Amino acid sequence: MTGARNILVVAHALRDDTVAAALRVAEALAAAGARPVLAASDRVELDAVIARVPTTATLGVDVAVGELELAIVLGGDGTILRAAELVRGGTAPVLGINMGHVGFLAEIERDDMDDAVRRAISRDYGVERRMALAVRVEDASDTTIYETWALNEATVEKASRERMLEVVVAIDGRPLSTFGCDGMVVSTPTGSTAYNFSAGGPVIWPSVEAIAVVPLSAHALFAKPLVVGPEASVAIEVLERTNGTGILWCDGRRSHDLPPGARVVVHRSDEPVRLARLHPAAFTDRLVRKFRLPVTGWRGPADHIDPAGGAA
Q1: Is 285 marked active-site?
Q2: Three-point CA angle 81, 187, 194, nearest 5°
Q3: Which domain holds residue 252?
Q4: Last residue of a domain, one of 78, 106, 130
Q5: 95-142: pLDDT as tens digits
Q6: What CATH number is given to the structural domain containing 86?
Q7: Catalytic residue among 16, 42, 77, 139
């Protein structure tokens, strides 16, 4: 099937509604002459798709990541993060169809799924690049022992509930402060509405390229959320005198143990994550819709904004 349009279908396979939706999407793709692709880890749970659409291929076996045109994701933010992991190393954008609750990364809701698939087949969508983070762990001798990436956030957390971590935070190779805490969150603008938001960090508009650094339950006078530039390097060192060990989590999916003396270095990744967008919409509207924010009383857009910044 040389020249086939390979479209990855990723679904929350433990829910009957998303499995049924995956089958509908695969059938629509096959009917349009495209080839549905499943991750190898999904083939057992999505066996109904393989049975009904025998042309379904397997990612990494029949189709390489670089051969994917698009990933259609059925689920919530966790499923979208998994899809971003699956397409990493290629150029395929991710189109999220929210089958969960908040679904902040998703482009549309489940009621619009058929129209979304039609537009995906027609290539009727835009692509938005989102900044990602490159993450590495160094041991006490500065040797790199682990490397990964994150779309939402990299978090350094205490491994034991009973003990706090003692850390040094450094920006661009210069130490900023030392304190005890439950952990640290280093977030992208995309992740600013996730763990960063829950930890009291700022919401950052996707058009603003920046990195948020937020302490978790810090025992310190100066332990406020920070926002640094996109080219900054953020380092978090687990002090050797600390009473406990830590653990690194990236997007809640990839982890690595942090012994005393370990250093986590986070900076902007050279490889962004691509999100497929069907509707150009203001980020403000997305916040209002997803968080159900009250906007009663707004009198509509101003016809003119005066130079002083007020509505005329």
Answers
A1: no
A2: 55
A3: 133-268
A4: 130
A5: 999 887 767 888 888 888 999 999 999 999 999 999 999 999 999 999
A6: 3.40.50.10330
A7: 77
